[in-house]
Amino acid sequence: QSALTQPASVSGSPGQSITISCTGTSSDAGTYNLVSWYQQHPGKAPKLMIYEDSKRPSGVSNRFSGSKSGNTASLTVSGLQAEDEADYYCCSYAGSSTLLFGGGTKLTVL
Amino acid sequence: QVQLQESGPGLVKPSETLSLTCSVSGGSISSYYWSWIRQPPGKGLEWIGYIFYSGSTNYNPSLKSRVSISVDTSKNQFSLKLTSMIAADTAVYYCARGPTRNYLDNWGQGTLVTVSS
After folding, report:
1. Would you state the pLDDT for residue A95?
2. What whole-number distance in Å separates Cα of residue A52 and Cα of residue B76?
3. Does the pLDDT at position A29 exceed 70?
4. Which residues of A touch B33 (CB under 8 A)?
5. Which of B45, B61, B106 is facing A98, going by the closest CB pair?
6. I want to staple A5 with a disulfide (CB 3.0 to 4.6 A). Which of A13, A23, A28, A67 is the partner?
């Protein structure tokens, strides 16, 4: 199993929208509608932001949305705010009851 | 709101076995999947494995030979054992809850484990 591929960093100005990609293979993200996204602020535990490709847990801002096309899942953050600056990790069900994380993306709000 | 709390030694010697426990409060351990995830300093997340409340387990293939996860429903706890620890196992270890096998909706705060003699 190789980690899902994410860009190391993305950035945007307050109010703008950014998209973080997460590319897998036909063995994981491309086969199952089971990609989740986690936000992690420095020194804190990860927080679930999106599950099953595009579902948003209760309490998560609707500025966060998820989608998937083929082997690539995406997390879009609209109306960027300073508090959105964090690391973001995608995670996919990878078959045989295993999970696979992406390498993580650092989001900088300029 | 369910809360998870990891406990265990912060320092482990090379070749020894790491034992961590995750205590679950504010909810039952039943009907969920319970995972361990780790994060080396400055690096990304790695899923270690999970246990269903009934006791069935599944592990990351890269760690399978060294990992064991168990559950104690009477204490609302689950535990991780990782044998033959090496320096590369130094990480923050998180426990987390999954409503299904596929995602993790509640996480503990994490505990740093350092492997050093």
Report:
1. 81
2. 27
3. no
4. none
5. B61
6. A23
Distance CA A99, CA B65 (A): 17
Query: pLDDT tens digits for A45-66?
Result: 999 999 999 999 999 999 999 9
Q: Is A70 exposed, middle or buried (0-12, 13-18, 19+ CB in 10 A)?
A: exposed
Using a pLDDT cut of 90, give the percent of chain B over it.
98
Mention every residue, 6+ apart, whose C-beta is less than 8 A from residue B47: A91, A98, A99, A100, A101, B35, B36, B37, B60
Q: How far is B7 from chain A (nearest CA, A)?
A: 15
Q: Is A69 exposed, middle or buried (0-12, 13-18, 19+ CB in 10 A)?
A: exposed
pLDDT of the residue at A3? 82
The partner residues of A106 in beta bridges, in order of sequence, read A9, A87
Residue B110 near chain A (CB below 8 Å): yes
Q: How far apart are CA B46 and CA B39, in angstroms?
A: 6
Q: What is the mean pLDDT of residues B36-56?
A: 96
Check residue A2 and give its pLDDT: 76
Kindly provide the residue ranges of all beta strands, DSSP E only, lying in chain B, ordered along the sequence: 3-7, 11-12, 18-25, 33-39, 46-52, 57-59, 67-72, 77-82, 91-98, 106-107, 111-115
Give the mean model confidence (pLDDT) for residues A87-94: 94
| pLDDT above 70 (res A28) | no
Which of B47, B62, B110 is the closest to A45 by Cβ? Answer: B110
* Backbone φ, ψ for residue B89 (5° rounding): -85, -5
